[in-house]
Amino acid sequence: MPGIGIPTLEASLPPIVKRNYGKWISHEHPRPGVIKHDSETGEACYTVRAAMPPNARVSTATVRKLCAVADEFAEGFFRITQRNSIEYVGVPPGRIDELIARLAALGLPVGGTNRSLHNTTCCTGYMHCHLAATDPAAIMQNVSAMLLREYQTDTLPAKLKISGSGCINNCGEGSCADIGIVGVHRDLPPIHVEKLKGCELPLVISVCPVGAIRPKGPGMVEIDPKRCIHCPACSVACGAFAPIGSADGDGVAIVVGGKSSNTGDGPAIAKLVIPYLPNNPPHWPEVTKAVKTIVDAWVANARLDERLGEWINRIGWERFFQRTGLPMSLKLVDGYDARALEYARSNVRFRW
Prior knowledge:
Alpha-Beta Plaits; five-stranded mixed beta sheet
């Protein structure tokens, strides 16, 4: 029925995209942050991409300003990418410089295309979630500011994606980014015995992904500290498990080499290279320094179009740790069991 449900796809397409739907034949990057799509009709569509906050949270006033820019430069249309960038589609080529200046005045730098740092992303963190061990939005904002030049220029060997998650449940998808910044808890979740009476114990036991929760007498459970991976899943299933975390125990881990695309070596799961860095707001100097160290080593040694994980695959983990100066331990990078390796090789290509 008309007016029921979400608008149709056609209603959300910019006019130039609607005219050339299914007729695009190639694309190129005339300058950082600008994409040109060519159609078989001879028409060209220019898209301008700008950075947004890593968690895509903006005020109503900001949204109104973004809409006003779209009305003036892109026939009233813009889109938000998977990495929370904003793209104005169908910009007249003669007005691209004017649009870039307008976005800069709003605090939104243009870039994040081709061989550059793409927009950093993260989960909601403390804003909506009680599981976070750190503030991923603040960390990613600091990382973005540190690598602003890499965002606005095409000077990197290949595209670079950095994602953040507040805890190891990884809603921010750090495990499939070139560099993942993941909040980690180091304390066991405390158990409130009285609240446990209102929980379904079979559910409490089965919700643990590593089997660390087990029965301990009638109406009671215990947590095996050797098995617990400090993912606060139990506190979601049962209120008896108080939100995990402490100022002294919580921190940040760094994983590298993840990727979700089928290009190059194909999809990959990132591996742990730094197990713990302290939470030091507001600038997280230890975290930003570690990220800059990894990026600089990759830029200095990688080949053209070689993503960070593919560079590591070529030189090996031992040389990666040597060139970054990070302390190496086989416990960091060799954590897969036989079954997990099958899922890590999930790909559109059949190869072993």
